[in-house]
């Protein structure tokens, strides 16, 4: 190179032209590179477009609601007990011979087999005495007596108190003194009072209340029940 920076034997004009051609080449290169960048970006975008779409995240199904444990179906099967026995009962003065299964209660025989529906079934567990009948003169909860064990005994239900179309004095007194509200407990109350007055003439109020205390009345008709038994006691004395 000479002092002016030119190649040996190169004139300044030639150098300028050489520089221009280099500049054009660099510009062209830059343009090309820019286009390449654009093409590259487009290609990248195209490639991205060609990429399999990411699976849309599916909402996870809610975990199943824990159901409360279902009670096991009742499996207790009451097997019919074969082996009915012949039972003789005297009910309200009539004799009956009945084939009765050993598990049958007295109230079932009265209501279902004999159609005496006056006796009421309340708790079916010897707690309310709505089912009271007389067995050989003694007031008993007929829901808790096995009928086959009462064979040969005399049973009196509320239907058996009336004589010749005339109410028993205890029935009459419950009627006149309004010794009831709904009347569900009334047959049992009457039978219990008959037992008392058959044994005890002119009972005191304390005796009446003590004797009747096992007969529940959901209506709370106790004051009038007491009045009815007092009135019947006077009548029967
Ligand atoms: S039904 Fe018999 S005692 Fe209640
Ligand atoms: S009158 Fe209703 S339960 Fe006694």
- Secondary structural class: alpha+beta
What is the overall pLDDT average? Answer: 81
Alpha-carbon Rg, integer: 54 Å
* CATH T-level fold name of the domain at 161-236: DNA polymerase, domain 1
What is the strand tally?
A: 5
CATH architecture of the domain at 161-236: Orthogonal Bundle
The named CATH superfamily of the domain at 161-236: [2Fe-2S]-binding domain
Order of helices and strands: HEEHEEEHHHH
Distance between the termini: 162 Å
Portion in beta strands: 5-15%
Shape: flat
Number of helices: 6
Descriptive account of the structure:
The protein contains 6 helices and 5 strands. It has helices at residues 12-50, 106-113, 169-176, 186-199, 205-212, 222-236; strands at 85-91, 94-100, 132-135, 138-141, 154-156. A 5-stranded mixed β-sheet has the order 2-1-5-3-4, with helices on one face. Helix 3 packs across helix 6. The radius of gyration is 54 Å and the shape is flat. One FE2/S2 (inorganic) cluster is lined by residues 180-186, 217-219, 221.
